Amino acid sequence: MRVVAQAGPELAVDLNPRPWISLVYVVSGEVTLLDAAGWLRCSAGDCFVVPGTTLRWQSTGFSVVCLMVSELYFTGACEAIAHLSGLESACGWHLDALRRCSSGCPPLEATLILALNRSLQTMAACLSDAPDVLDHLELDRHLGKIMALLAFSVFHQQPTASESASLGLCSGDDFERLTDYIKANLDRPLNLTVLENRIHYSRRSIQYAFRQRLGCTATQWIRAQRLDLAHRLLSAASHGQTVASIAQRCGYRSMSLFSIDFQQRFHVRPSALLRDASALPFPAEAEGPAGPEP
């Protein structure tokens, strides 16, 4: 296991084939990777599982942590997880395309990404204060298992070949236009019927596109976008703004639902965040989207 932390400015570069499998955890910025199967985009708190194939990297200013293991280690770890789960592994666990894992989508992935984040923080603290402890903790093996579990979880989100053939697949350009539309209209009602009418694909195709490209359902992603916007607005609120007005601006009509969703995502009450922002002498600046050696 190699662990590399990297940061850089806005960047567009082609990455040559590599003899390892990578997990790229985005600490800050927004990173888009393109391979033969299409593009995937990650923001802060998300991660990619990356094969050793040729890739195109595009990013804003970024900070990432890359975990790298041999393909032999990776496939062996996935085989072991499959065996313990009682699953057949005849199809093998060869990683031939990008996978995306999101902290704001399926609960298992969110839990694993939280474990990854905390393990990386522990590793950073040990490197700073007690480097001799690292070997005893065997954090490299622990991180390797988290990496395999994340990859294993997203393997099971892919449709079968017959299911894929039956879908009218949403093109990358159409999908990007759809996500841009969602971001620009978070204050309006957004559901699968609205999305169907917007780009004229079936809801099944839209759901598959979200699963394939963003690792979650359309509804989960819309909710995550609304909550992220609410967090930015509450953090930058000026005197006189209310939680209710910000919730409505983010598409919530029920204050109780907004409060529950917000606390589950950020572990803080929206009213507390607003109170802290209002206490500042000047409005806080909203944070921009937050992370190469994949």
CATH H-level superfamily title of the largest domain: Jelly Rolls
Beta-strand level of the residues, as a percent range? 15-25%
Gross morphology is globular
CATH class of the largest domain: Mainly Beta
Unreliable stretches, pLDDT < 50, 5 or more residues? 159-167, 282-291
The percentage helix is: 40-55%
Helix and strand succession?
A: EEEEEEEEHEHHHHHHHHHHH
Which secondary-structure class do the elements indicate?
alpha+beta
* CATH architectural type of the largest domain: Sandwich
Query: How many domains in all?
Result: 2
Beta strand count: 9
Identify the strand order in the major beta sheet: 1-8-3-6-9
What is the CATH T-level topology of the largest domain? Jelly Rolls
Word description of this protein:
The chain has 294 residues and is an alpha+beta fold. The chain folds into two domains: 2-158, Jelly Rolls, CATH 2.60.120; 164-278, Homeodomain-like (Arc Repressor Mutant, subunit A, Orthogonal Bundle). It contains twelve helices and nine strands. The chain has helices at residues 71-85, 107-129, 133-137, 139-155, 161-166, 172-184, 192-199, 203-214, 218-235, 243-249, 255-266, 270-278; strands at 2-8, 11-15, 21-28, 30-35, 38-43, 47-50, 55-59, 62-69, 99-101. The strands form two sheets. The protein has a five-stranded antiparallel β-sheet with strand order 1-8-3-6-9. A four-stranded antiparallel β-sheet has the order 2-7-4-5, with no helix packed on it. Strand 4 and strand 5 form a beta hairpin. Helix 1 packs across helix 4. It starts with a strand and ends in a 16-residue tail after the last helix.
